[in-house]
Amino acid sequence: MIIDEIIQNKRKEVDQRKSFVSIEKIKAGLSPSVRDFKMAISKGHGLNLIAEVKRKSPSKGTIRNDVNIFEIVKIYSQNHFVSAISFLTDYQYFGGTLEEMLQISLQTTKPVLCKDFIIDEYQIYEARYFGADAILLIASELTTETMEHFINIAKSLKMDCLVEVHNEDEIVKLPSIVDIAGINNRNLKDFTISLDTTKKLSEKLRKKSNIIVTESGINTRNDVKKIIDFADAILVGTSLMLNENPSARIASLFKPDIKICGITQLKDAIYCGENGVDYLGFIFSQKSKRYTDPRVSAAISTEIKDLFPQVKLVGVFVNEDPKRVLDIMNRCQLDLAQLHGDETESFYYNFQDRVIKVFRIENQLDQIKINQINNCQAKYVLMDTYSPNVYGGTGQSFNWKNIEKIKHRNLFVAGGINSENYTDILGYKPDVLDISSGVENSPGIKDYKKIDQILKGLK
Predict the structure, then answer these.
(1) Identified catalytic residue from 116, 268, 384, 431
(2) Contact (Cβ atoms closer than 8 angstroms) between residue 235 and residue 195
(3) Residue 139 carries which DSSP code?
(4) Residue 332 appears among annotated catalytic residues
(5) Among this protein's residues, is 261 annotated catalytic?
C-alpha cells in the first residue's frame, strides 16, 4: 500500500538527514513559534480555512506543472477567508521541501502547518527550524504514547499539532486530550474519499477534541454545507491548486445563500426562483408595510412549490399566537417560521428545527447576548438591527464585526443589506443574507436590477 511505501521511504530520509545535521545543532538554532495556529483556525463565525500548497500527490500525480508556489502563498496571505497555510514538505511524493516552507513562513503573517509523515521527534524540531507553527500527526502511523510525546515536544516550542484520524479505531488510539483533531475523508490505504467520514466520526471525536478540522474532498459550497455542522475548520488543497483563480474558488466556498424577504407578488417570487434565490419570505405581521394576507401567500406558495421545489419558504411572525403560526405554516406550505418578537424557547420547543429565531443587535454585543445566540436551540438564528420602536424592517445596518462572536452553525444576517454594501459583509462568513428593502422600488415591490447585481456578484 502507498502509505507503507511512504513511511518506509520517510524512515530512510530522516536517517539520512540526521547524519547531515545533528538534533543538537537544530535545537540550538530554535526559537518558539509566535503565530497561534489553534486560535487562527477557531476564531470568528463559521468554518475557518486552512489553504494548502502542494505540487503533486500520490492520488492526483502532478497537480500543476506551471505553479509558482510563492505566488499562491501571496494570494492566500492576502485573502481574508484564509486562516492558515498548509505546506507539504515531503519531496518525493508531494514535491515540497523544508527549505521552501521556510521561505513561505517568512513571506506570510499567517500560521504555517507543516504537513509531512512525522515518525521521529527529529522532524518536529526540524519543522520548527524551518518556520512551521504547527505540525501534522497521523494517528494510524503512531502509538498513543508516541503521539503524546510528540505533542509535548511541539508544545515546548509553542507549536500546535493537528492529529489526524480516519476511523473509530484511530480515535480510540488518541491521547486523552487533543487540542486539534483532523478527520481525513481520504482513506490513506486506497485513497477513496467520502465526506460521510466526517459526519460519522465527528460526534465521537468531540469527546477528545474541542476543535475539529475536516480534510480532503472539499471542492464546492455544497461540500462545505454538508460538513458545516460537524467541523470547525476545513483544509482544502487540490481544488485550489487546480484553479487558475484561487481567490475566486475560495470565495465560492463561502458564498452565502440569499433570502429575499417581504414577497407580496407572485411575479417577484417567480423571478427570484428563476434566478437562484434560496429562500423567500412572507411577512405576517400586520404592522409591517410588507404584510401579506395568508390567503395571498398560500396562492404564491402553491405556485413556487410546483415551479421551484428547492426554494425554501419562510413566514415572518412577531409575537404571534403559536397556534396561528403553525396554522399559517401549514396553509402556506412554509418550511420555516422566522420569529421576530420576544418569543422564548418554550414557545417553539416542539418545532425548533423549523425556526429562525431573530436577535436584534445593538452596536455592541455583550456576553449575555452572545451566549443567548450561540446556545439558542432553534435550528437557525438571525441577527438584525435593533430598534426600540419596531421589530425589524429598519433598513439600517448593525456593526457587522459582531458576527465574528457568533458560533451558532446556521446564521442569517439582515439589516440594511443592499446591492452596494453586501460585499462588505462576506468576509464575516454569514450563512444566509436576508434582504428586503435593499432590493425594492417601494415596500413589497422588488427591484430586479438590484437583485441581479447581488446574485451575479456572488457568482
Answers:
(1) 384
(2) no
(3) G
(4) no
(5) yes
